[in-house]
Amino acid sequence: MKSTIRFFYIAILVPFLLSTAAPAGAYDRVNSEGFASRSPVLARNGMAATSQPLATQIALDILKRGGSAVDAAIAANAAQGLMEPTGSGIGGDLFAIVWSADDGKLYGLNASGRSPRALTFEYFAQNHLDKIPSHGPLPVSAPGAVDGWFELHKKFGRLPMEEVLAPAIDYAEKGFPVTQLVAYYWNRSVPLLEKYPGFRETYMPNGRAPMEGEIFRNPRLAKTYSAIAEGGRDAFYKGEIAKKIAAYMQDNGGFLSYDDLAAHQSEWVESVSTDYRGYDIWELPPNGQGIAALQILNILEGYDLAALGRTSPEYIHLFAEAKKLAFEDRAKYYADPAFNEIPVRQLISKKYAAERRKLIDSDRAAKRYDAGNEALRHGDTIYLTVADKDGNMVSLIQSNYRGMGSGMTPGDLGFILQDRGELFSLEDGHFNQYRPGKRPFHTIIPGFITKDGEPVMSFGVMGGATQPQMHAQIVINMLDFGLNIQEAGDAPRILHSGSSQPTGEMMLDGGYISLEDGFPMETRRRLVQMGHQLRFESGPYGGYQAIMRSGNGVYQGASESRKDGQAAGF
């Protein structure tokens, strides 16, 4: 009888003890945080980190052939447009920050496209639309990625574009195995997009989306890439490709024209920064949302976060409140600076942060905040980063916006046009109000860190409004909580949702917080007591890549454990 009882306790208690010995997502690593999925990757001659392992290998191959970090980044981005159409493609836009070792400085590129000139603001009211649709012809703006490639290549490239695009062309012709998460999101997109002309022919071989491990080919995209490699950016914006895009849009109720494409050009911009704990954190100015990360950091700099602790309810509360404050300004002011005077310097100033910080109640969640008065005083993405042996580093982000884009898949070109125009506001007088020839508010943001004028880290986190929150968390995880480059991305994440938006929605209920596994129940309970709403969500926490450069010239690479990607070097 005693042996039977002993067996009962062993059978019941041992599995229970094992299941509760470590938090969900913990790993048995002897010298890392329990949530660390792997060590940072170390190399001297070059490093690449992307969300697609084959794209990472392509980037390294380009570096080994003598290509620059920019050459390798373009090659990887082209491959991802083929292999990860759920988050990227030449129908979308691109932003980049480049560290030039020769010049000892950062360069910022805004390669986002503008709205069709023939589509007027009045059209939406005349057709009884109070918001711009998420799919179809109306949210399509000019795709800026290809021009972005050639602007980057002209300034920093070494290899001819034919050689840079050759690997992606080869994979498009011969095929590649579809990865796990890409297959998941691809299949989710089909019910929304299969009705749009050209989508089924390009993205549904055998009448369905490919499954994980199946070989996918896109000979149409191979032909388009070959034309771009041979004819340059004008082949896309002024040649046969542009004519096909324009004809397709005209035939399917769209407004994007040949003249819109021919007139497109990227813009080199000055990156902006704030000092956080002695490091300079760099972002691009609007029409993107990068400065929201700087505003969050400026507000939180006034607190001893290290003393509070990474999983404490006090830290999470302060983070959520700082995010709410920054996103009120994001909703009001972030827009195309060609149409409005955006008070960027004031918004990211320490003085302004101190004023906003006073609005936070350390014990209670706010239901709403108003945007500051600075103006009166005057879903899906890919992120990649590459570094070369000469010390050049590229932080590049590229997207079609929502999922695979608008669904509009022109002719036999092999790609989808973006639906970025959905992010305009239809509120008359709003900074982000829709106008013809205007760049919409953008979510995609590359990040960079320097110290004393030297490069420290190129990093980014893909995922809509998640991005500035995660930029701030990566920085805080490293500089306040002492995590390494891989641990900083693996650490359980905080996500606040429900803020006011640049498209016109207002936060009136305080929004809600989602916490990944790894935060104590006591923390969750206390947050509810402080007035926060908590929700369980799986999947919206973003995807991270980063490369850090040490003083001895060694690179450390990190990649997102929540995605299919890889960091690798040589």
UniProtKB/TrEMBL annotation:
Positions of L-glutamate binding: 464
Active-site residues per Swiss-Prot or TrEMBL entry: 381 (nucleophile)
EC code(s) of this entry: 2.3.2.2, 3.4.19.13
Pfam families for the chain: G_glu_transpept
Annotated Gene3D superfamilies: 1.10.246.130, 3.60.20.40
Keywords, in A-Z order: Acyltransferase, Glutathione biosynthesis, Hydrolase, Signal, Transferase, Zymogen
Highest rank taxon of the organism: Bacteria
Signal peptide range: 1-26
Record pathway: Sulfur metabolism; glutathione metabolism
Gene Ontology biological process: glutathione biosynthetic process; glutathione catabolic process
Record-linked InterPro entries: GGT-like_enzyme (IPR052896), GGT_lsub (IPR043138), GGT_peptidase (IPR000101), GGT_ssub_C (IPR043137), Ntn_hydrolases_N (IPR029055)
Reaction equations catalysed: an N-terminal (5-L-glutamyl)-[peptide] + an alpha-amino acid = 5-L-glutamyl amino acid + an N-terminal L-alpha-aminoacyl-[peptide]; glutathione + H2O = L-cysteinylglycine + L-glutamate; an S-substituted glutathione + H2O = an S-substituted L-cysteinylglycine + L-glutamate
GO MF annotation list: glutathione hydrolase activity; leukotriene C4 gamma-glutamyl transferase activity
PTM comment: Cleaved by autocatalysis into a large and a small subunit.
Family: Belongs to the gamma-glutamyltransferase family.
Subunit (UniProt): This enzyme consists of two polypeptide chains, which are synthesized in precursor form from a single polypeptide.
Protein known as: Glutathione hydrolase proenzyme
Species in which this protein is naturally found: Microbulbifer rhizosphaerae
Lineage: Bacteria, Pseudomonadati, Pseudomonadota, Gammaproteobacteria, Cellvibrionales
